[in-house]
Please model this.
Amino acid sequence: MTSSSPPAPASNFLRTIIDNDLTQGRYADKRWAGRPGPAAVQAQGEPDTARIRTRFPPEPNGYLHIGHAKSICLNFGLARDYGGACHLRFDDTNPEKEEDEYVHAIIDMVKWLGFDWHYANENNCYFASDYFGFMYQFAEALISAGLAYVDEQTADEIRATRGTLTEKGSNSPWRDRPADESLRLLREMRDGQHPDGSMALRAKIDMSSPNMNMRDPVLYRIRHVPHHRTGSAWCIYPMYSWAHPVEDALEGITHSICTLEFEDQRPFYDWILNHLADLGQLAHPLPRQHEFARLNLTYVITSKRKLLQLVREGRVSGWDDPRMPTLAGLRRRGYTPSSIRLFCERLGVSKSDSRIDYSLLEQALRDDLDPIAPRAVAVLDPIKLVLTNYPEGQTELCHAPGNPHDPQAGTREFPLSRELWIERDDFREEPPKKYFRLFPGNTVRLKYGYIVRCTGCIKDEHGNVTEVHAEYLPDTKSGTPGADSVKVKGNITWVSAAHAVSAEVRLYDRLFMDPHPDAGDRDFLQALNPDSCRVQQAWLEPGVQAVPGTVWQFERLGYFVADREDSTPEQPVINRAVTLRDSWAQKS
Ligand code: ATP
Ligand code: MG
Model:
């Protein structure tokens, strides 16, 4: 679905599930020791006061993007609405790609979005790598119960004997080895006695299951690679599909909400948890997995691998480049946390995959900023306008509302003088049809100032216009009794040349020109928009204080923000967050 109007409000299938669970008292006897742990630990705990527990489990292998925001708003939002807790869990079970830099960036962004993982006096920020000991203990329990075995086939052999969607898999020759042999080998694997890939621990389920994920999935593999937190303490690392249910259960999660790709993993999720509970390792009630449709946005890629490639190849200035779909990039671009929450709310939650039009994200920002953003005037592509009958050296103040929707925002004032900057596009020597701005003989209003009549222009030797001339009509100033004495069709913005503040303005546009930049096996780099950042030396209304992070609506132009990284009071750098209207509606 690609739609330009907001979709219907969230279908509350998750809320319905939670309501039912609570009505049925599914968690009535749940105990919580105040920290993650197996059955023995939770049994000592108090009744859990959190009515539900959800989690947001990012892998610290990249920066969070707009897709993650959907999951964050959903998980933290449900916990908040139901009087529960939402854990922030770093799913750091894969040593190869994970880094502390990403951990800090993720914490920063979840906070920025306005969410908190503290509940009562608990600090529910966890690392899956802290559970490696429990996972190992559980693996031994599974082997002892005849539910797992060490397989000495190579990864290729394991893959080859797995079968296909239409063909059954075949049993490994090691499948029926005695439990104590598997136990000994697992310990040797843990102690570093075997090289990478020489053996693996597998669950013993059913090689003929129609669900491929149930064909003896690998639980542990050997990787002699240091981990960002556990260093070289471990050289076996759990596979995601095994680690994830265990992490949820140790943390007493009630609703494990994930994206639809994991639907086929649910039988294995339940298999693992039910067996570990039967073996006395995990406490009831067990978490349950529920799937929702991930966010796909037109004009955007969210694959971390591809985003990393854009950064590494210098196609963008970094993870927080204002054109990136990362939350750090959106923040720098001028997006507010409330605009992103509004966007996610409008998306709702569904179980069917869809592609959301990028304009919905932009519209959420406009809707969020319109009532609150202070107004100012900027001239991005300046040309001089000289009021030839206005006395040289004279200035007078003009008045404008701080924000027309907000009386509290008061009025602002700025000077008018003989020489002004106006937009180059607001003058045409030969006007096209329906052009109501400046052209010789036409009258327009200088917004908040006088009506002026264009008298001509000056050109250089190449015929380029260098200066526009006009005469002002003295009794027509805005806000005076004569303001309406002359009717005009055009209204243009301006700043006084002697008073304006100079600024670098970065006119950002979509990073990709194609609504589906990485559809199929397309090379997404081919879809890059060559015009996604234009830099202009612009003039701003005097009085604009370019404190990094400040947002304005520049009249007629859009919403702009002082760049968090590069802007200084002496040399303002301003980013365009979004235009006032959707300029892509016709193009796409
Ligand atoms: P990648 O596969 O590119 O590494 P990922 O989806 O695996 O990305 P994680 O860090 O594992 O990234 O994601 C953390 C959480 O965010 C997961 O629970 C995942 O379901 C959710 N999430 C990620 N992308 C989206 C998306 N586009 N829409 C909704 N939720 C998402
Ligand atoms: Mg992942």
Notes: The CA atoms of residues 224 and 308 lie 25 Å apart. Residues 57-59, 67-68, 70-71, 258-259, 294-295, 302-304 surround adenosine-5'-triphosphate (ligand 1) (CB under 6 Å). The domain at 13-125+241-292 is CATH 3.40.50.620 (Rossmann fold). The mean pLDDT is 95.
